[in-house]
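hiii, so i know i said id send this last week but things got crazy w the move. better late than never?? heres the sequnce for the chain we talked about at the cafe, plus the structure i predicted for it. fair warning i was half asleep when i ran it
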Amino acid sequence: MRFELKAVSAEGRVESLDLQGLDRASAVQQAESRGYTVLTVRARGGFAAPWGGAQARFPLVLFSQELLVLLKAGLPLVEAIETLAERERRGEFRALLERICAILRQGKSLSAAIEQFPQAFPPLYVATVQASERTSDLAPALGRFVAYQNQLESIRKRLVNAAIYPALLIGVGGLVSLFLLLYVVPRFSRIYEERSVDLPVFSKLLLAWGQMVEGHGVLVIGAIAALVIAALYALRSTSVKARIENALWRLPAVGERLKLYQLARFYRTIGMLLRGGMPLLAALQMGAELLHPLLRARLASASRAISEGRPASESMEASGLTTTIALRMLAVGEKSGNMGEMMERIAEFHDEEISRWVDWFTRLFEPLLMAAIGLFIGAIVVLMYMPIFELAGSLQ
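okay and structure toks below
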């Protein structure tokens, strides 16, 4: 986010500064580090393109990896973060790390320091660090978090890669269809109108569209562009995303897979927190944010049952938060006292199951999508050429 600051320089001049930072305090810190005395701070507003990304995100995984390496090399925590701040190129991120160092020098813990910057450090990361501080094993906790993020990223990449080819098909098919509807069809309609050819019903409808484009082309293209921009803005809306997600959850096959994906991510998160030393109920409360509202309500019921003394496996099963494999492995984890590792194994098993389903679905969906696009484009072409086919038949 960009901020406009009015500040007094070391020479006593009032100057306007344009700085980028995670928040107002970060922008003020950057100005003060340059010797300015800040008078006012104002966030810059502006028109955001519907396809534009949000502000730059703090590289949390890279920060954790580098901090882990420095800690394993024997550097103290404050010195390690200072080293990372000196190497950071982006001003707002450097100011953030410098502020964390300043808080640590005041005698506060790392979890208390990073908790003040929720834009950069999510609650899950703060909870991981806080749990590690109780057992003095920050480095292993950072290693677990990095591994956790890498595993989630690998699943996300599989899903993205599976969606690339269908997206290309839809894009190319849409461009070809627009070319036919906006360029080819209007010219055919002009030819048939001049020759007063008798047309079938569907051909008349298609060529009526062509005449409208021919007479009001700018308005039609503007309306299509407005619809596309409106659709992009709608897809960025939280409420629209929630409605689409709810609709997908109602689909029998897709809804089950979405549930399985969320449960896998949930189990992986709980497993990481348990291995870091966090109590089960606190870990369940932290992982609730990863679940769909329907599953979140079930988790609240399971948490109440666990707090009343019931086994975790029975409570999760009664609330519909397990699969057959997960139930058995949770029971084994309870008997062995190793719930954290067992939950991570459950997540790995379900991740593989999701990957197999994605591969199967893409192999089925891609040819069906190609057939649908081919039929749509073919129908446009056949309707344009229908009068020519009828004329050739009458000549025979």
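btw The chain has three domains: 2-43, 60-121, 138-396. thought thatd interest u
miss u guys!!
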